[in-house]
Amino acid sequence: MLTRNDNMSLLGFVPALVVQYLANQQQITQLPEKQNLRSVVMFADISGFTNLTETLSKLGNEGAELIAFAINRYMELLVSAISKSGGDIFKFAGDAMIVVWPPSIKESAVENHEELKVICRLAVQSALDIQSKLNNTTILEDIKLSVKIGFGIGDINIIYVGGVFGRSEYLATGDPLTQAFKSEHHATSGGQIIVSQEVFDMVSDFFVFQRLQTDSSFYMVVKLINNKVQLKAGAQLIKNRLGGINKSQIMTFIPAALIPYIEIEQEKWSSELRRITTLFINLGIDLSDADSRLQHIQKVIEVVQKCIYINEGSLNKLLMDDKGSTLIVGFGLPPLKHQDDPIRALLAAQLLVKQLSLINCKCYIGVATGIVFTGVVGTSGSRREYSILGDAVNLAARLMQLAIQENKSILLCQKTAEDCEHKIDSELFKMVQLKGKTGLIPVYQITQQKSIMKIHYYQSKMGFNQKGLVGGKDKTQQILHLVNTFLMMDRDGRISLADMDIERDFILLKGNYGVGKTFVMKILEYQIKTENPKVLILESSINSFEKVFKGNGIKKIIKQIYDIALSKTTYNQQELLAAISNGNQVIYKALEELLDLNEWLNDYVNNFPNFQSSSSTNDEQKMKQIGQAVVKLFEIYFEQQLPDKKRRLYSQMDDESDDVQSNDLSTDKIDVPPIIIVLDDLQYYDQLSFYLIKTIIKKFNRILIIGVTRDQFWEIPIMSRKGNSRNPNRSQELVYDRGVESIINLYNVTPNEVIMKGIKNIEEQKHFLLLYFGFDKFSDPKIHEILHLKSCRQPLLLIHLVKTLLDNKYLILENDSVYATQQLQALIQHEEWLQIEIPQICYQMNGPIIDSLSCINLLLLKFACVIGDIFDIQTLFKIIPFKQINQNKLLMALKQLVQQDIIEFMHDDNENRYYRFVTPFMRECLYQSMTYTQRRSIHSLVAEALQIIPQPYEDYKELKRLEYHWRMAEQKISIKSSNAIIKFSHKAKKSLIVKQIQMILKTSNNMKVPLKKGFIFKRSDKKVSWQYRYCVIDSENMILYLNNCMIEQTGILPLKLITTITPIFDKSDDSQQFCLQVGVSDWIKKGKVKGDKRIFLFAFESEDSLEEWTIFLEFVKAKSIYNDFVENFGRIQLPINLINEAYDPQLTIYLQEMFKGSIKRFRQQNVTEQLSNKNRKSTHSKPQQLQIAQSPIPNYHSPNNNPKRFSVRFSAISEQEEKSDDTPLKEKLRQFFFGSFAVLAIHLLTHIDEPNYIVLGQEGRTMRRLKKNKKHKNNMMQRIPNIPSIIEFDFQ
């Protein structure tokens, strides 16, 4: 059952009307079901959304997030007004919403009618309130939104359909929705409210209406003429009163992508920027007639769900709106990311068209691919939905509308066509002008599905010729030599099992993803076809739809041989199948499935996901019988068995072989061409495929098989993603290993294994770039090294990487050389690539791995990726805001990620542990999947943590890293200029200045080194004029000079005697605008101490300059007071409750135990008991001892070790030690006295970062009494000699 927290988190994703129905029904036993009610429907469509999306889409990927932000902001205002009147937001439809007012059921028809009239008045009244407050509302810079509203009233049907994989859909239908849609269409501009004739008849006495001239059956609401009806939040009351709903029922309506985040109460982190292929589908059914066609609607939605889920897509929305019966489907939504999502989308679209036509349902589909916002849309309170928003989604909707107009089943965008061209053929349909787009847009249509190896694809896409691929040319020649040997022996007629070794019958080409295996095979195919045009080359690859089928890898090959066998005989399909299956019906059915004959595919879709294959590989006897039938097909091809021969398919290969007798069918015929079979994606082949491959190799010596396989980044089936390893599909690994081993062991001869390792060195990379891009020189030679490192020697990744840098203007091509822009040089200096849009191939490799992770592990990685390529556990634990992650869970999660080869352990010390990312571009993929808001918030947290957590970097690099994080945290994008604007906040400036001062003091032995200097204005002593003075601030004094020669001093202000520092922004007092008022108790002029209290007034040229000088003065003043305290009273011992400012205490204990290996058991238990029940920032349970110990941390980015730092080490006092404490009372009082001074100093240092801190150092009665003593006053002005270096106290 649902708890109160569940009510807040789960029920917000389901309309109140659906929740009420589930509560009354207790359980939906069988779909479809229908809920009837009579009420009012409002359709609200945001006006100006097209202009909004067009404007924001120009901002790149952040534009999709800003679209969601703008809609959310406007929707919140709408929902707030609607909820007050009792409306239930039934569906969000992009920039529109459907609202239904829940009716109250009365005893009599008259009472029900009166209640409906009141509800209708409430609804129209709330619409007037909305228009009065939200018309032409400015959401972003120069972007205003309004809303058009239409109303309908009558009998509504809410139908519940679907049910595949437990995923149910709800849909509102009926005449009131049609009325509302038509009403909204009659609104000519935002701010208008249009009602139908039925609504007008109901409330005509309460509002002023104006009949529309275009259609007399619709009316515009002008104003209210009677008193308002009292508001009531009917929809919210329904949810508040419910308590007995089954949680599992609610979950069937919530997308799988949201559930993990809801369970840990982190919905806001579910929002992402993802590369999605979106399908907008218009169904040719009338959903408004749910009474008579409910079963048909159920069948249509069930087929739709099956076609989508077979290809592992996500059904995001099902709705009836002004565009008709519409579906929104996404491929690439979490947790269903694949390497081939665009291909899966088109396969699903083709399957939908075919399967829906069988049940008399026409559909029109628009397909578009791009970066979109995926996340929760709506309000943070009563109602929200998981949606996908962005330019690609809008484009898919426009393409669907175009498909309806042009009567085309499927239309797709250019990006989708390019992503799928190696699997599915498409052609340009036309150039069209689409709404919301400037210029003509190319639109494509599907022509046919094809094999992976089409020459024109690689000539157009890759730009190479038959000379071969750099790094793969030797591999091409190696394979070509083996092929030519095979063909030469066949041409001479000397092939036999005795003469032909098995290693010439099977070649295995292995390599990593993107290394160029398929292209090498393309070059090979080109050369074979050129030299031997009559050789039969059969090719096979697996798409996502075919992976689950038995015999998945060999199906296409057998199908092609089957078609040839049909042409050589007079048999029809059934007769040939019966002949090769020897009348065995089980084998007959298995062959039908293997060859995709008859209605097998329809049976698969109809029975999904419970389809039982006829080709079960569990029965070895059945596999053997299938193998025998396949052998017969090949024998017919080679004319070894040719019953009732119809004709010869091929002419003889050589003129010299014309005298060869064709009657002898017991041996191979050399006039029938040999076969070269190319099998791509061998790593996905199933047991039956490997068995048939082995059988073919064993039985025929005129067949050469070349297998192409990937040794990394396998595509992981969704059902196998358990998160235990990078490739949790261990069973498929075993199938592949055993399959290849069975072929190797056929004759105990190792096959020819050709391994491609990509680009070997920089010189080869230069030759590769020259061949592909036409250049091989960079202005900075380091760029070659960086590209070689980032591309991991993979040619395809290098191509995409360089192309991305060129397209985004990070690299500028001039003549034969390429120059790196300042932006790229800055990123290289910071060793950061997070801002550079990563190549699509990186998403394809890493996306499935990321989606296989648990929600907690994924969130940890997202925070870790912002810290850096190398990150430490203390910083990570400090910045994560999730209460569900404690110290133990953090360590366990990192251990799992190490086991999954996503990160690796680098180094640990007594109190910290360091990791780094392993997989190429994994960190960038994680980072760029986050929204810009999430990125900025984490950068801010990291910057704050860098202030207090020791880092393994040189001081200069640490300052640069801090500046980088603040810059990333505070940059904003301008809608007008499309440029990022960076203006540091006061908090960021203070952080950077403090770190800069620390760096100067640590690197300088002279404590008098200038920390800040420059010209400022000082008001004269008589307050008459302003004087231009050169000011220098060191660690003790603020010194004023006559000029920048720094010879003649005009005044010295001891920092420890400054009482007030007050910025003034008022021009009323003087002509200077940006002033700083500094009060001191004593100061020095011309070597003489001025004992009078004095207020100095300084002026600066800008607000930023004033703010900077103020921060310097405040911090250095605090530092000076601390130094004075240390000199007079000695160095202090920090209280234990400040340890968590740097390191988390319990996490430190865990790490200490791991680092030391063992520790006394009673101490472990004691520490755990003390800290386990406390908040991670609370450490007041027991008195604890501190030791300041030196622990050098190695620098991973510099050949030199980092200077030694002081780290905090502590241990708890056991109860026995506490009881045996015999410390004298005098010593205890002394400790208490010095501890009090420690608290005073720490109070000053801690609150200096707060905006409203208390100014310490002001004169009190004791101070004024002491000033009477001149000796004491002179001593106060003496400078403190030989202050210890600040490195001995890590001042934060």
Automatic annotation (TrEMBL):
A Pfam family matched in the record: Guanylate_cyc
Location of the region described as Disordered in the Swiss-Prot/TrEMBL record: 1170-1201
Transmembrane segments: none
Domain named PH: residues: 1009-1118
Listed GO biological process terms: cyclic nucleotide biosynthetic process; intracellular signal transduction
Sequence ranges of Polar residues compositional bias: 1181-1201
Domain spans labelled Guanylate cyclase: 40-184, 324-400
Superkingdom of source: Eukaryota
PANTHER family: ADENYLYL CYCLASE BETA (PTHR47455), GUANYLATE CYCLASE DOMAIN-CONTAINING PROTEIN (PTHR47455:SF1)
Name this polypeptide is given: Adenylate cyclase
Organism: Paramecium octaurelia
